[in-house]
Amino acid sequence: MDNIRERVAYLKGLSDGLGINEDTKEGKLLIAMIDVLDDMAEAIAQLDEDYQELDEYVDAIDQDLANLEDDMYDEDDDDDYADDENDFVEIECPNCHNTVYLDSEMFEDGEEEIICPNCNEPIYVEAECHCEDDDDCNCGHDHHHE
Questions:
Q1: How many CB atoms lie within 10 A of CB 8?
Q2: For an engineered disulfide with 134, which of 2, 30, 93, 143 has Cβ 3.0 to 4.6 Å away?
Q3: In what helix (H) or strand (E) does residue 18 lie, and over which residues does it extend?
Q4: From the CA atom positions of the chain, what is the Rg in Å?
Q5: Dihedral of the CA atoms 103, 107, 110, 115 (nearest 10)?
Q6: Looking at 53, 72, 91, which one is the last position of a domain?
Q7: What was the pLDDT predicted at 139?
Q8: Which residues form a coiled coil (predicted)?
Q9: Structurally, how many domains does the chain consist of?
Q10: How far apart are CA 112 and CA 129, in angstroms?
């Protein structure tokens, strides 16, 4: 930005050195053009200064937001989900053969057909429970045996 201001100052000095004055039509035009250029250079310099301030402010907000995210979404929160392994049942999709983790509540609702989130094909789940230890089972099936 300083380069533009320096160039306009050079033009002003050049017009003074050449003796251009407002006595002629051309002189009036050249001096008016130099004045407009000077105003434009000043406006550009002000815009650049405002931009620099705004850029610093946005950087500060970005840093504050990153700190807030770190505080709110602490990395330890991921461990909370790992502790709830009993809430999910691992099933291999017979269509795409990807491992799918299904919420055990889906079994409590009596759903026997579940849509695979990977291939969008139905996965048919047996209505019976094949758990080894009925007392600790979390599948939602009735384990009362006669």
A1: 19
A2: 143
A3: none
A4: 37
A5: 50
A6: 72
A7: 55
A8: 37-71
A9: 2
A10: 12
What are the structure tokens assigned to 79, written together? 């461990």
Q: Which amino acid is at 39?
A: D
Enter the tokens of residue 24.
Answer: 């002629």
Confidence of residue 68 (pLDDT cuts 50, 70, 90): very high
Q: In terms of Cα–Cα distance, which of 113, 1, 108, 101 is closest to 49?
A: 1
Secondary element (H or E) of residue 99: strand 99-103
Angle subtended by helix axes 2-17 and 25-72, to nearest 10: 170
Q: Which amino acid is at 129?
A: C
Locate 49 and state its tokens. Answer: 């200064």
Return the CATH number at 118. 3.10.660
In a domain, 108, yes or no: yes
Structure tokens at 22: 């407002």
- Give the tokens for residue 115: 């849509």
Q: Is the pTM of this model over 0.85?
A: no
Distance (Å, whole) CA 16 – CA 126? 96
Both tokens of residue 119? 């291939």
Work out the number of other CB atoms within 10 angstroms of the CB of residue 15: 16
Residue 122 falls within a domain, yes or no?
A: yes
